[in-house]
Design goal:
Elements (H helix, E strand, L loop, with lengths): L1 E3 L2 H13 L4 E6 L5 H13 L2 E6 L9 H5 L5 H11 L3 E3 L3 H4 L18 H4 L3 H16 L3 E5 L3 H13 L5 E5 L19 H6 L1 H13 L5 H13 L4 E10 L13 E9 L2 E10 L1
Parallel strand pairs: 1-4, 2-3, 2-5, 3-4, 5-6
Antiparallel strand pairs: 7-8, 8-9
Helix pairs in contact: 7-8, 10-11
The structure holds pantoate.
Length: 279
């Protein structure tokens, strides 16, 4: 695997590959790679000549400095996982390589910025669009792969690509779960053994909603789901919403694409999860 830390170097290298007619698939990450990330790499490998992964813990998308500080950074382990997965190129820049001092950024992505995650993490999606815009400009991928676990993030990036006419195709890849149902996440390593046990209520409730969706009114299903989660010790629910998967507005019985999304604090760790209820 070729590893680049400098923008200029990776740009030159990728230009040569593009000139040779190679297609490129890109997986942007903040490291602490798990099987979920590796499944994105695998999916990218199936449809592209060359796969590029970036590892960059993006400071501008953290609204809590303590969260940024404790974000895991096991770079040697990550490199080994990428090598084993057969990833071709890693871009692992320093913060100073991506951002000039006091850089300002604002992209009007409309209400997407303030709904659900946006309400609880002000400024988060501005940081995400800022870094993904830069990474797309450096890598210029044909196709970029993002996980469904960050469902709203995929919508936000898709909105940016549409607004700025960026020449990249986006693919949303299914959530990977542990055998007991917990959605894979870099943050799971912060869960204590008790937290880990309590966290299972999140995927259990999403499955219950999917299985029981047609048995009652949406408001009743939502209330029952909230009740299940808030009854679990050690779990503090931030939101549980059943929405139109195209707009993130509350769904009704006639909505075609329905997604249930949630965020909760389990012990000290904030987790998100979602499930497509009606595709
Ligand atoms: O999903 C993530 O890991 C990050 O939000 C991303 C897309 C790599 C941008 O920093």
């Amino acid at each position: 695997m070729n590893i680049f830390t400098k923008t200029k170097d990776i740009e030159e290298y990728l230009l040569q590959l593009r000139q040779a007619g190679k297609t490129t698939g890109f997986v942007a990450t903040m490291g602490a790679l798990h099987q979920g990330h590796l499944s994105l790499i695998q999916q990218a490998q199936q449809s592209n000549d060359v796969v590029i992964c970036s590892i960059f813990v993006n400071p501008t998308q953290f609204n809590d400095p303590a969260d940024l500080e404790k974000y895991p950074r096991p770079i040697a382990d990550d490199i080994q996982k990428l090598e084993q997965a057969g990833c071709d190129i890693l871009f692992n820049p320093e913060v100073s390589e991506i951002y000039a001092d006091h850089e300002q950024w604002h992209l009007n992505i409309g209400e997407l910025e303030h709904l659900l995650e946006g309400k609880f993490r002000p400024g988060h999606y501005q940081g995400v669009t800022q870094v993904v815009y830069k990474l797309f400009n450096i890598i210029k991928p044909d196709t970029a792969y993002f996980g469904q676990k960050d469902y709203q993030q995929v919508m936000v990036i898709s909105k940016m690509v549409q607004l700025l006419n960026m020449p990249v195709k986006l693919v949303m890849c299914a959530i990977l779960r542990e055998p007991d149902g917990l959605a894979m996440s870099s943050r799971n390593i912060h869960l204590t053994a008790d937290d880990r046990e309590h966290s299972l209520i999140l995927s259990k409730t999403l499955n219950w909603v999917k299985d029981n969706f047609d048995s009652d009114k949406i408001v009743e299903i939502k209330a029952a789901a909230e009740q299940q989660i808030t009854s679990e010790p050690g779990v503090e629910l931030e939101y549980f919403e059943i929405v139109d998967g195209d707009t993130l507005h509350p769904a009704n019985q006639n909505t075609k694409n329905i997604v249930a999304l949630l965020a909760a604090r389990v012990g000290k760790t904030r987790l998100i999860d979602n499930m497509i209820i009606r595709p």
